[in-house]
Amino acid sequence: MASNLENACNLIINVSEGKTGEYGAGVTWSSVDGFIGNVYINEKNFLGRGQKLSLNWDFGGITNYSISFQEPWLMGTELSLGIGLYDRSYKSKITSGGAENEYNINKKGGNISLGYNLFGDWNGLIRCKIENSIMELLGDNSTGSGIDKSRARSLTFQLDRDTSNHFFNPTSGAIDIFSIEYAGQLLGGDEDFTKYNIDLRRFYPTFGENHAWSVRLKTGFSDGELSLLEKYCLGGPTVLRGYKPNAFTGTELLLIQLEYHVPIVEKIKGIIFVDVGNVWEGKEKIDLGDLHYSYGVGLRINSPFGIIKLEYGFSEQGTGETQFGIGYPF
């Protein structure tokens, strides 16, 4: 509003909204899935009120089509709404019952979630998931079971917080996630189980902000019957490094990881790590003396494409595995 006061001046500011949309393409490579191409479109202000819309296509070692929508203020309240749809196909080697089989896996589904800030840094979330899966055994292996189909309908209740100081490369703070996932005949579908999961991470700076310890404790327990796709898995780039991906599967899980990060040059860090853990079937008694372990060294490179991870881990048998990927540590 213009002013007619003698000692006042009128200040006019021209404001133009910055660009809220982005699109791009890229190629990544991992020791698990090989080369993966990616094309994406993101809009951070879809309807002019802070909504986020994302379209994503992955191709190569994984084929994935997905769309997601986020509403941060549902109907003007402090509730957030998330909706996602996906169609994902990939190959995976899974060890179960002492035998390793390779599968073609396809998952089609969607989810809808409601989130709310409960207090301080703690957030609550309820998620409903509908997923249809097909597992096709590859190769001539009599230990497999041909083609398995499942329809999963589940509800997840989650409590989480994130006080870490950096999304990709934290050196202080904590990340805590507690969740319960229920899938039963009351919701429809073939799956009938309850999974209880805890994932705790701590980051401790030493000798300044560039040196840091990171510790992770992850546990999982279940009731009911878990299909092979729903079981807990250990082995691979993020869980029990030094072993092949999905080297161990079961209905109960315990994992402890310890890392020490050392700066080498700008944007490059060396790491030393130790992983300890195992999975058990529900009929087995959990024995902490039966834990597997691995140890090794690696590099973290902060690149324009994300954190590049190169690691070499040794298993308890002395065999080694090279792990490579781009993404979030752990």
Describe this structure in words.
The protein is mainly beta and 330 residues long. The chain has strands at 21-30, 34-43, 52-60, 62-71, 80-96, 99-119, 122-137, 147-162, 173-183, 192-206, 211-225, 232-234, 248-250, 252-265, 268-280, 292-303, 306-315, 320-326. The protein has one domain (72-327): membrane protein fhac: a member of the omp85/tpsb transporter family (Porin). The chain is built from no helices and 18 strands. A 16-stranded antiparallel beta sheet has the order 1-2-3-4-5-6-7-8-9-10-11-14-15-16-17-18, with no helix packed on it. Strands 12-13 form a two-stranded antiparallel sheet. A hairpin with an 8-residue loop joins strand 4 (62-71) and strand 5.
CATH class category: Mainly Beta
Give the low-confidence spans: none
Helical segment count: 0
By CATH, the topology is Porin
Fourth CATH level, the homologous superfamily: membrane protein fhac: a member of the omp85/tpsb transporter family
In whole angstroms, the N-to-C terminal distance is 54 Å
Instruction: Indicate the radius of gyration in whole angstroms.
Output: 23 Å
How would the global form be characterised? globular
Q: Largest sheet, order of strands side by side?
A: 1-2-3-4-5-6-7-8-9-10-11-14-15-16-17-18
The CATH architecture name reads Beta Barrel
> Count of DSSP E strands?
18
Largest sheet: 16 strands, antiparallel
What's the pLDDT, averaged over the residues?
A: 87
Determine the strand fraction and express it as a percent band: over 45%
Look at the helices and sheets and give the structural class: mainly beta
What string, H for helix and E for strand, traces the elements in order? Answer: EEEEEEEEEEEEEEEEEE
User: Into which percent range does the helicity of residues fall?
Assistant: under 10%
How many domain modules?
1
